[in-house]
DNA sequence: CTAGGGTTAG
């Protein structure tokens, strides 16, 4: 039988903490009560309070503290530190004031906790009070205390106070410099962070991985690719490449600076990777629009048995949203539930966003209502989902609800972009204009280029093409690609070649590499019978060496994705596809379908034009879907270009003939076809 | 026995 001395019992409490076992902790606590008489030695009480508080068992921690008559600053600090560590910042401040009420002086361990809690709660008024206390007994001169006070002033936006404190610090260490650099980046002053790093090296400071990450953040913030590369060399030379955090910082930096190849190189050469490394690699792909690769890295991480974290899950959901990958998205949603992170507000918002972007608006709504906590991003994701569907009424209702509900959120720039684009897609012209006119007064938001683009789109789409042009010439901003693009699209839709030429010329100047604009202009001329001009545009396109981007449609069947181009006959089941197309064409003709050859690209004989539009990629993908997807299951097709008018009307007919639900997500919005009708009510 | 700066996300 080993004898249980107070010291060995304290060691047992510590081992409960280090193994994060509340079960062991409670058992040891029971043993302590059995072995020793009340009151317990105060150092043992301190250990217990510390253990309970750090394990996020605040009620037990409070209880032990209140049963400790000889509690000291150490007891209280243990309690407060645990609250801070577990994100209970308001409790921490309450405990701090309770301690003051007992006339116990905070020490150099207590102040940093109190500053961190005030900083995290963004409560400068409280922070200032704590600061005054620290000044009064001279503790502010301590590096720990001074540094955390400085961090608090930065995070609460009191720049002048932060500056004074920093300049008057009697002693600075690496933590001070790291805090300075990180906060400079957060404050949008990456140059200052870089300067601080140089100064730090000059005073002979030895940087650590946190310093490196702060510097890399400054570089990615300002797109300083070269300085970041130089730091990469410095990291290698100082032997810090083995440090996982430093390497993770490099992956993130290269990803944000559009050099995802270097991210991959760093990632591949790491001998130790953690969950952050994997997640950083996923987001590096994501930031470079490589959604498929992001998903591949995620699947590889799963194979290697990496724990799925809330960060990883929200990142992968965003990849699914970009791919319109409903099936993978659903399985990641299930994984989020399994990993117990679906209550996280980031994850929840990503789920709402994913379902919205994949066109499953009811799933998005359900996820939205089931979230325990919602913020502005959640609301924007939901409104964005309605915008994708062209549900202006719902977008407007949610704009109302977000300000009047219990979530306490205020609409921002993005919210208004979503609402206006919902109006434009639904043809709610008056409503859209009214919101645009009143956004400054009602929401305090200054209209920006995206809002202007929505209005040009709104007017143009509803046929007021001249008014759209007049609008954009009157506003003070420089029209962007999106704005000219919206105008060009409207000109194509309503047959306005003269205005279309103006829009296209501006687009050619802003975005010379995009072939799509040439194609649209050529089609616009072709539809107006101006064949010479159409040919000229195509020749010019060849002349400057732009090839038409490949238009394609894809459909996922039993975990496999099948991609089709126009006139595609390369699929292994081509003969069945052709037979299905033949059968459909016959039945459609009987049902009264007339091909719309406005959308043929060349000046061909009528018969050839019909054939040209008949073999658009979405029709081929649909035929494949009809022969492979069992009846009753909705067919979902994704297309990288806008759906053409002929395909739109053809798919309406087909949905009626075959009695199935068909969804097409083009690069702009969703179309849900059912019983011969489309959810967009032919307005798009 | 108690403490400060940080890497990944919607």
TrEMBL record:
Residue span, DYW domain: 592-684
Molecular function via GO: RNA binding; zinc ion binding
Residue ranges of PPR repeats: 72-106, 142-176, 375-405
Coiled coil: none
Keywords: Repeat
Gene Ontology terms describing biological process: RNA modification
Top-level taxon of origin: Eukaryota
Family matches, as InterPro entries: DYW_dom, E_motif, PPR_At4g14850-like_plant, PPR_rpt, TPR-like_helical_dom_sf
Chain segments annotated as transmembrane: none
Pfam families tied to this protein: DYW_deaminase (PF14432), E_motif (PF20431), PPR (PF01535), PPR_2 (PF13041)
NCBIfam families the UniProt entry points to: PPR (TIGR00756)
Recorded family membership: Belongs to the PPR family. PCMP-H subfamily.
Protein name according to UniProt: Pentatricopeptide repeat-containing protein At4g14850
Organism from which the protein derives: Juglans regia
Gene name in the database record: LOC109007283
């Amino acid at each position: 039988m080993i004898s249980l001395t107070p010291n060995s019992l304290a060691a047992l409490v510590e081992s409960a903490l280090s193994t994060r076992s509340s079960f062991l902790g409670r058992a040891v606590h029971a043993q302590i009560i059995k072995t020793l008489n009340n009151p317990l030695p105060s150092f043992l009480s301190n250990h217990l309070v510390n253990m309970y508080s750090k394990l996020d068992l605040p009620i037990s921690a409070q209880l032990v503290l209140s049963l400790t008559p000889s509690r000291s600053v150490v007891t209280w600090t243990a309690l407060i530190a645990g609250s801070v560590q577990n994100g209970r910042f308001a409790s921490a401040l309450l405990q701090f004031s309770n301690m003051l009420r007992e006339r116990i002086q905070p020490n150099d361990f207590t102040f940093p906790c109190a500053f961190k809690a005030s900083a995290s709660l963004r409560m400068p008024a409280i922070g200032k009070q704590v600061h005054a206390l620290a000044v009064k007994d001279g503790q502010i001169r301590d590096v720990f205390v001074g540094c955390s006070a400085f961090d608090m002033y930065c995070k609460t936006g009191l720049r002048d106070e932060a500056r004074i404190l920093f300049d008057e610090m009697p002693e600075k260490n690496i933590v001070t410099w790291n805090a300075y650099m990180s906060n400079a980046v957060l404050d949008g002053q990456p140059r200052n962070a870089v300067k601080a790093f140089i100064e730090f090296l000059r005073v002979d400071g030895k940087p650590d991985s946190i310093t490196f990450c702060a510097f890399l953040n400054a570089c990615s913030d300002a797109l300083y690719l070269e300085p970041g590369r130089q730091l990469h060399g410095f990291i290698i030379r100082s032997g810090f490449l083995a440090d996982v955090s430093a390497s993770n910082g490099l992956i993130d930096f290269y990803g944000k600076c559009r050099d995802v190849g270097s991210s991959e190189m760093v990632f591949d050469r790491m001998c130790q990777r953690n969950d952050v490394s994997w997640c950083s690699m996923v987001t590096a792909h994501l930031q470079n629009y490589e959604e498929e690769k992001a998903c591949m890295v995620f699947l590889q991480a799963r194979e290697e048995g990496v724990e799925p974290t809330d960060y990883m899950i929200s990142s992968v959901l965003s990849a699914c949203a970009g791919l319109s990958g409903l099936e993978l998205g659903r399985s990641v949603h299930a994984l989020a539930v399994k990993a117990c992170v679906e209550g996280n507000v980031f994850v929840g918002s990503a789920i709402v966003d994913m379902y919205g972007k994949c066109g499953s608006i009811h799933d998005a709504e359900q996820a939205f209502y089931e979230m325990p906590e919602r913020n502005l991003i959640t609301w924007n994701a939901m409104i964005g989902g309605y915008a994708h569907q062209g549900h202006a009424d719902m977008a407007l209702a949610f704009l109302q609800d977000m300000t009047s509900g219990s979530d306490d959120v205020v609409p921002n720039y993005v919210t208004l972009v979503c609402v206006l684009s919902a109006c434009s897609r639904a043809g709610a012209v008056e409503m859209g204009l009214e919101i645009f006119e009143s956004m400054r007064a009602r929401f305090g938001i200054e209209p920006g280029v995206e809002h202007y683009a929505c209005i040009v789109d709104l007017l143009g789409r509803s046929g007021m093409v001249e008014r759209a042009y007049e609008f954009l010439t009157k506003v003070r901003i420089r029209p962007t690609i999106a704005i000219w693009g919206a105008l060009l699209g409207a000109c194509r839709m309503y047959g306005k070649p003269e205005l279309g030429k103006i829009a296209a010329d501006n687009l050619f100047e802003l975005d010379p590499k995009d072939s799509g604009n040439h194609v649209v202009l050529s089609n616009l001329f072709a539809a107006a019978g101006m064949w010479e001009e159409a040919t000229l545009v195509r020749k010019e396109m060849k002349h400057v060496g732009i090839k038409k981007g490949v238009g394609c449609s894809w459909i996922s069947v039993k975990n496999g994705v099948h991609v089709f181009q126009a006139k595609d006959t390369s699929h292994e089941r081509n003969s069945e596809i052709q037979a299905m197309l033949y059968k459909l064409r016959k039945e459609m003709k009987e049902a009264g379908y007339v091909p719309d050859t406005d959308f043929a690209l060349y000046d061909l004989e009528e018969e050839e034009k019909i054939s040209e539009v008949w073999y658009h990629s979405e029709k081929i993908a649909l035929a494949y879907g009809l022969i492979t997807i069992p009846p009753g299951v909705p067919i979902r097709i994704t297309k990288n270009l806008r759906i053409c008018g002929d395909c739109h009307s053809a798919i309406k007919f087909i949905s009626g003939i075959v009695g199935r639900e068909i969804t097409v997500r083009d690069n702009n919005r969703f179309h849900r076809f059912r019983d011969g009708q489309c959810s967009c009510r032919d307005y798009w």
